[in-house]
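Chapter review: from sequence to fold.
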Amino acid sequence: MNVWAAPRHALRRKRDVSILIGCGLILSLIAIAGALAPWIVPNDPNQVDMMNKFAPASLQYPLGTDHLGRCTLSRLLMGIRTSLAISATVIVSTLFIGAIAGTITALRGGWLDAVFMRICDILLAFPTLVLAFALLGIFGPGTANLILALVLSQWVYYSRMVRSMVLKVKVRLYYQSARVAGTRRWALVWRHVLPGISAQLLVLATLEFGSVILEVTGLSFLGLGVQAPTAEWGMMMNEARQHLRQHPELMWLPGLAVFAVVTCSNVLGEKLRDHFDPKER
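The token string follows.
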């Protein structure tokens, strides 16, 4: 027996807990800043002042101003509210639809499950972003259409993931025992299926949150998502690209914000996955 194995495992676990707490704290602070943005912004994020365009950092404008004289810090803070709210709406909506569709098909089985899997195979043949582009081309740009396009292009993936989770729960002894005891199907779902997959759903949502943030900001950067003058990180980078050489900070400030959220989300999801399922390491 390796006498160093236990101390190494304890140190690794302590390090993982520290990283988990640190990433969770960073995301919580960013989310709180976004929630309180309307009350803590130093200036109106949409107020245009051409006399102060590209103003340097000062007490009035802590991060300077953009090409229209708007406060960069105020728009960054309001961008948290917009970007995180859209991404959270997409994640919650797709998980809700995916949980319902995946659970029903896994529990019913038979022809319904077979037809559902063929539909999944057809829709998953198209990359998510390509399908989102096509849907936004039909619906047109805008915040509501962006959310709808991302939900419609991603719900199949979540449904298939939930289906596989439910199928694993169905073969477990406690589920089989409850079924033999005569427990009704919806009672089985509430008492056994959902508690059995809740940890996996949390990990999935955390891991996918960063990807959704990138898709939201990317589509807004291309002009297909959030429209001006709404403050949003992708829109801010789109407006700053014309002035990249003279004022690169207008591009990398929202870029750093996206990087921080995506990195913390991915690390948090990986640590949660290791915590709930150590075999995945």
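Two observations follow directly from the output. The radius of gyration is 23 Å. The mean pLDDT is 85.
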